[in-house]
Design brief:
By secondary structure, the protein is of the alpha/beta class. It is built from eight helices and five strands. The chain has a five-stranded parallel beta sheet with strand order 2-3-1-4-5, sandwiched between helices. Helix 1 crosses helix 7. The longest helix has 20 residues. It starts with 15 loop residues before the first strand and ends in a 5-residue tail after the last helix.
Length: about 210
């Protein structure tokens, strides 16, 4: 695997990148797939799932701090490949900021290279997925207790790093409807020369595009 954490630019074609961001089992994958289907474009899956499932299947071992950088490398490579084939929009099921937060929450440590890359990677908007959906168990997920605390950490990381984000709550149907409406408005705002942060500020204040 290429050990590179550099996020490639979208090139001549303007790709609007949307990052799904939040704790485990908050509907990120479902929404990424739904949005990619609606906008007829690509989505970036979570590299860590296949990586850690293979580790579990072979060793019955769970994630540890030494897995963080390989996961970050794999996620960056996946995103860069999808950026080259995306059609106007790219929906990222996860990103390096998620990996950074998990590393800090679970291991109280984040590799400096990962920390720097997570801060530098840019997205036009983060959808912060709320914890108001049922937690679903699988081999790779931790205990459902403490979701409120973890959600708060995720939210604070976006605030601390000045990332443009909007929280999505509600069931799958409602989240999809909200997301589509927001993305359509964001597209118009960006075309008019507004920044993502300006758009979010206007959205939160209820100001029409």
């Amino acid at each position: 695997m290429e050990e590179n954490l550099k996020q490639l630019p979208t090139g001549a074609k303007r790709i609007i990148k949307i990052a799904l961001f939040g704790p485990e089992s908050t509907g990120k994958t479902t929404l990424a797939k739904q949005l990619a289907e609606y906008y007829k474009t690509d989505w970036v899956p979570e590299f860590a799932r296949d990586y850690l499932q293979e580790k579990w299947d072979k060793q019955q071992a769970i994630c540890d701090v030494d897995d963080m950088l390989p996961i970050a490398y794999g996620q960056t490579l996946l995103e860069n490949k999808k950026t080259a084939t995306a059609n106007q929009y790219l929906f990222c099921d996860t990103n390096l900021m998620v990996t950074k937060v998990f590393s800090e929450v679970y291991y109280n440590y984040c590799e400096p290279a990962l920390d720097q890359a997570a801060r530098e990677h840019e997205y036009d908007l983060f959808f912060l997925t709320d914890i108001d959906v049922p937690w679903e168990k699988d081999d790779l997920r931790d205990k459902p207790e403490g979701r409120e605390t973890v959600f708060s950490v995720f939210k604070q990381s976006l605030i601390d790093n000045h990332k443009p984000f909007i929280t999505l709550s509600g069931d799958k149907k409602l989240r999809l409807q909200k997301a589509i409406s927001i993305i359509d408005d964001l597209t118009v705002a960006l075309q008019k020369g507004q920044s993502s942060l300006e758009f979010v500020q206007m959205y939160l204040k209820g100001i029409s595009k």
